[in-house]
Amino acid sequence: MLNISQDFNIYNIDILKKDVITEIEKLIELEEKKLVLNFEKVDDIDAAGLQLIISTYNTAKEESLDFKITNANEIVKKVFAIAGSKEIQEVLQDE
Fold first, then answer.
1. What gap in Å lies between CA 34 and CA 28, rounded to an integer?
2. Looking at the whole model, is its pTM more than 0.90?
3. Does domain 2-91 fall into CATH 3.30.750.24?
């Protein structure tokens, strides 16, 4: 599980992208099959964050990884709902 400790937005996107890529590489090396992003400390997400989620979804699918986002707050869920992307709805889960 990758714990995200900052907002998923344009200001943090380079760090977040690096963290996600590192996590995916680690999971592939360990032959793990589940990528989980813990959004417990994420207060906000913007279009850049949504693009990274969709990109991560596509990469996870290519690598046969099950991808989920846990502990998203109501603001983040609302942004996901407004985006209306099938990929985003598939990865969101409550825990």
1. 10
2. no
3. yes
